[in-house]
Design brief:
With 283 residues, the protein is α/β, with parallel strands linked by helices. The protein has nine helices and 14 strands. The protein has a six-stranded mixed beta sheet, with helices on one face.
Length: 283
């Protein structure tokens, strides 16, 4: 059954105000190019980005509530998509700032570049609900890993989390390989989180194959903020989002954080800022 998580209970002030949805699905697609063609047709009135690969789709899209309702229904029911996305979950939140300047649908080798080929999310770690997550990360035999880039970690994190200090997600496997022997020797379980869940689902499948006991936060950081009114007890800072809103607080409200503050000190910070501004200016 199709499901939607409304990540912000505060509705926009006008009927045609913008909403943001995030979604992904690991499902084998025999013809990603054909799927991409159909998605371009279904998103003519929307803005955002959707990646399509043989392993599935990964998207973030913005539009009016009416337009997003129509898109969600089409994605889950359109005959041309063969029911491949019938059970996909959408996470919806309100926007003050337009997240995207245009709509892009691209075919890629992977919907999330992990750095290891042939990883099957079918063996991904068990998802842990937000209340259970709070209990899990307080246990002494658990190492809490932030499965994001270092600049995201610096902006905000779970208080007990470790920064793998990787510049890109595809570098994460090297960090795990270097630390897994110690975790196993110490009898440590691994609790991982990311923004919305997709990075954890991809990496945890591989980590379980390495003999680690791994758990992942259900729905990621944003779901934790929505589900836990007192999320600030466990979280410090803000959550970076890869769009023009830049960052959200634990109440899922946009903050005043700037790109310069996010990328300060990053070796490729100037390039990241310039790239973000080019994308924002594109039409």
């Amino acid at each position: 059954m199709n499901s939607r998580e409304n990540l912000n209970a505060t509705a926009p002030s006008t009927v045609d105000a913008l909403w943001h949805i995030a979604f992904y699905a690991f499902v084998t697609l025999p013809d990603p190019d054909a799927v991409a063609v159909r998605l371009r047709e279904l998103t003519l009135t929307l803005s955002g980005s959707i990646l399509v690969a043989r392993e599935g789709i990964n998207g973030v899209v913005a539009g009016s509530s009416v337009a997003l309702d129509a898109f969600e229904h089409a994605l889950t029911h359109d005959d041309a998509l063969n029911g491949d996305f019938a059970s996909i979950a959408f996470k919806r939140s309100a926007c003050k700032t337009a997240p995207f300047a245009r709509m892009k649908v691209h075919c890629k080798k992977q919907i999330v570049a992990f750095g290891v080929d042939g990883v099957s999310p079918a063996s991904a770690a068990s998802s842990v609900s937000p209340p259970a997550w709070r209990e899990l990360i307080s246990q002494p035999d658990v190492v809490v890993i932030d499965n994001r880039n270092s600049f995201e970690y610096r902006l905000g994190k779970f208080k007990s989390a470790i920064d793998p200090e990787v510049p890109n997600f595809r570098d994460f496997p090297k960090y795990v390989e270097a630390n897994a022997p110690d975790w196993k020797a110490q009898g440590k379980r691994v609790a991982m989180y990311c923004t919305g869940g997709i990075r954890c689902e991809k990496s945890s499948a591989w980590m379980r194959d390495q003999g680690l006991e791994v758990f992942q936060l259900e729905g990621g950081i944003l779901n934790y903020f929505q589900s836990m009114p007192d999320a600030e007890k466990d979280w410090e800072g803000e959550c970076f989002v890869f769009d023009n809103r830049i960052a959200l607080d634990t109440k899922l409200q946009e903050t005043d954080t700037t790109l310069e503050q996010v990328y300060d000190g990053e070796p490729d910070g100037e390039w990241r800022i310039a790239r973000a501004r080019r994308l924002d200016a594109a039409s």
